[in-house]
Amino acid sequence: MNRDTKIIHAGVEPDPSTGAIMTPIFQSSTFVQSAPNEHKGYDYSRAGNPTRTALEKAFAELENGKYGLAFSSGVAATDAVLRLLKPGDEVIAAKDMYGGTYRLFATLWADFGIKFIYVDTTDVANVEKALTPNTRMLWVETPTNPLMKITDIEAMAALSQKAGALLVVDNTFASPYLQNPLDLGADIVMHSATKYLGGHSDVIMGALMMNSQELRDKLYYIQKSSGAVPGPFDCFLVLRGIKTLHVRMQRHCENGRKVAQFLKAHPKVKNVYWCGFEDSPGYQIARKQMRDFGGMMSFELKDASIEAALKVLKGTKIIALAESLGGVESLINHPASMTHASVPREERLANGLSDSLMRLSIGIEDAEDLIADLQQAIG
Ligand SMILES: *Cc1c(COP(=O)(O)O)cnc(C)c1O
Q: Which residue segment(s) compose the domain that 70 sits in?
């Protein structure tokens, strides 16, 4: 079946009791039992809920995986993955990953004896050097947030297999429409479904996808025991969002390309970070593992002052200044003070994330309107 058809039908069957085409919102915490533990597959909604089941099936199908699990947020999904580890275990993680992932690793999990080693994963040799007999997990984000750096997933998978470690890929930025890490050898794919999967900036949700039943069983146990599950209405919203993932992504990519080219040609712009430029460092690998380049990018002005960046951040009229990404509307963001404020400044600068860097999530409006908006804001 073609991917576009699969996206429309993923996880959803007409409801057997009524024929409803769309999965109903089973807004119920508990389910009747005819005798103790005799029921129709559901007993309590933390352990399982039919709306969530449909969504979890859809998650699995989107990533060509066998299993999917839904969590109440992206970081809750990340947190569940870390619960697979024990004190003394080591995780090699990407340097410029999502600030909230860094915060969870560095300020919560590090206190429980998990050691995190941060390397530039765009060069696989750096990861190889950081391996020790205690390495249990490689955590990769590609493209990264916000510099759009690309890591070779296949090469990382080969390394993780050799080391006997799990490879986890945060696939939020690419979305399953552009990249499928399980097909490239990853063990677990993580998504902030808040972003492209939901797609309408109206829900917070996380997803995990995997092929190994053993991993699925462990993560399901963690999901129901630690309880960070999404409610049925939120599951419905993401199921609904997924149905238009392919048409939204096509437009995100088209608009992203136009805006990136506009910025690159602008005399006041110094750098544009977008993985679709042929001269961008990760281009060849991006072409190999992604179907297109998406609508995420960041840029810096030649005037590196914060004041110049603030003028743009406050000056756009269509493009709203807000955290998050992946919705139908375009957003602009200031990583240094917003999404990445929890990363210490020296570390941020060392990772190439300057004070004047601005990130764009290009939506599905008319591209010319977005370009005109940026033009008037940049001046
Ligand atoms: C937003 C985001 C997360 C965290 O997800 P939440 O749904 O906000 O908890 C993780 N990784 C990336 C790349 C993100 O953009």
A: 3-242
